Amino acid sequence: MSNAASVPFFSSSLSSDDSAAGSTLAGYGWTAELAELFAPYGEAGLLPARIVRVDRGQCDAVIADPETGEPRTVRFDTRPVGDADMINCPCTGDWAAVDLHAQPMAAVTALLPRSTAIIRKVAGKRSDGQVLAANVDTVLIAASLAADPDLGRIERFLALAWESGAEPLVVLTKADLVDDADFIRADVEAVAPGVTVLTVSAETGEGIDVLRACTPGTTAVIGQSGVGKSTLTNALAGAEVMTVQEARAVDQKGRHTTTTRELIPLPGGGVLIDTPGLREVGLYGGEGVDLAFADIADLAEECRFHDCGHHTEPGCAVQAALADGTLPQRRMDSYLKLQRENDWIASRTDARVAKARLQKWKAITKSMRAAGGPVKR
Questions:
Q1: Higher pLDDT, 331 or 239
Q2: What are the b/e assignments for 323-349, b being 16+ CB within 10 Å?
Q3: What mean pLDDT is predicted for residues 330-340?
Q4: What is the reported pTM?
Q5: Measured CA angle at 166 (ends 225, 231), to 5 deg
Q6: I want to staple 219 with a disulfide (CB 3.0 to 4.6 A). Which of 206, 215, 266, 325 is the partner?
């Protein structure tokens, strides 16, 4: 399942100097590759912009001011003219072609293809996807050391991050509140093969410089409420750019201080996307689970049979690792649970595609019959 998407679904008209805009937007991640993708829109008279915030059918995007060349934030209309699902709607981090002269207000005309996208299943029983952030280089998974980290939840976040196409990074916050941060980090590293795990404290500054060096380009911060995402954002930005509230002392859970996804430029270069706390982290299919559980995938390669189900088959390396304790049963259970979610999403997606195809055929049939013509399938 590809997370990239090209979404031209609005009308346009404007003229711009793309080279000047590119120089101004370089601090927001503009590259020569993006300039090449944008060229047809520039010829049509549109301006490049990066969406920094989306809220109720409108978005804020940063552009290079056509007169001064300086970065300027403008509010745009993002309501689609035609059909557009949640995944293909503009989101924070998107690069867009915009029309400053559209009426009744400036409008997003098209989105450039996304290099990466963090997509989760929407809350509840629906199987639709929701894009949390686009064109992200690093997904920073924040977990607090003020309470014992939920390893299963971290595994879930890792699967979400790997599926996005970006590089995961686990950051254990509030290191100043515990004496055994290194031991906890070792436990987390065991469930995050191939992923850097850092311990930091925004209060004391511990690990912030290392974290800053690990987050060039565009970084999206995800995690539960109360883990210190906004505090971390302020520490990296070097200013109070996000409102911070204390977590509840009884369980270290927080309220939704951040209510929307917002892109913030960092003083040393790069940008950060702070996101609201995630209560539900439903997966949206793909290979993220296999990448998050690479250790189990490696074990499966050693099984006697290539189609081993890892149950009672002879020569099963996964069962052998469970038996000798090399692979914890908790981790295997987590892996199987996420795989079941992926299978469910895949089945619902196939059913949704089939339903859409049937509805389209019915509409064509109805139209042809109304016109008195033959109906051919």
A1: 331
A2: eeeebeeebbebbeebbebbeebeebb
A3: 94
A4: 0.82
A5: 30
A6: 215
